[in-house]
């Protein structure tokens, strides 16, 4: 997964309402790779024969694979490099299947001066259906911190 452009915001650059969206097509290799990395080899993700007999009728992507795309947006675009996860809530609403195009969006909903923290609404959609939603809290570097690193 690669972003065409990396964006780095300092805490002072952020404003409530700022939003970033990332589109990703779920590939079979993504699901297999996530199973290898995470150790979650649940057959609902890997075996078409097994998954066909479940209520989903076929293989589905790991919920945390979808959630990991939120991390990609936070770390690469909004707020971008230097942001540190403090917390994340996740509510899984619907399955994500191989071949689905996921639209992952994060939006700044609150800025907390103390600790330079940002609260972000996070959402993943497949077509019009929300498949995941939640909230993230991240620590965002201040401009002085970024400038100090750049001088080193």
UniProtKB/TrEMBL annotation:
InterPro entries: Fatty_acid_synthase (IPR003965), HotDog_dom_sf (IPR029069), MaoC-like_dom (IPR002539), UPF0336/Enoyl-CoA_hydratase (IPR050965). It comes from the Bacteria. GO terms for cellular component: fatty acid synthase complex. SUPFAM superfamilies: Thioesterase/thiol ester dehydrase-isomerase. GO terms for biological process: fatty acid biosynthetic process. GO terms for molecular function: (3R)-hydroxyacyl-[acyl-carrier-protein] dehydratase activity; fatty acid synthase activity. PANTHER family: HYDROXYACYL-THIOESTER DEHYDRATASE TYPE 2, MITOCHONDRIAL, HYDROXYACYL-THIOESTER DEHYDRATASE TYPE 2, MITOCHONDRIAL-RELATED. This is 3-hydroxybutyryl-CoA dehydratase. It comes from Oharaeibacter diazotrophicus.
């Amino acid at each position: 997964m690669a972003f065409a452009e990396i964006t780095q915001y300092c805490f002072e650059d952020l404003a409530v309402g700022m939003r970033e969206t990332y589109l990703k097509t779920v590939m079979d290799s993504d699901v297999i790779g996530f199973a290898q990395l995470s150790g979650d080899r649940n057959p609902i993700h890997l075996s078409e024969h097994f998954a066909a007999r479940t209520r989903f009728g076929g293989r589905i992507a790991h919920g945390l694979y979808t959630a990991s795309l939120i991390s990609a947006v936070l770390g690469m675009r909004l707020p971008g490099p230097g942001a540190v996860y403090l917390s994340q809530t996740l509510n899984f609403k619907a399955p994500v299947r191989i071949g689905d195009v996921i639209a992952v969006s994060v939006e700044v909903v609150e800025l907390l001066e103390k600790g330079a923290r940002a609260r972000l609404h996070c959402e993943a959609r497949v077509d019009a259906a929300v498949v995941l939603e939640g909230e993230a809290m991240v620590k965002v570097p201040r401009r002085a911190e970024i400038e100090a690193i750049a001088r080193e």
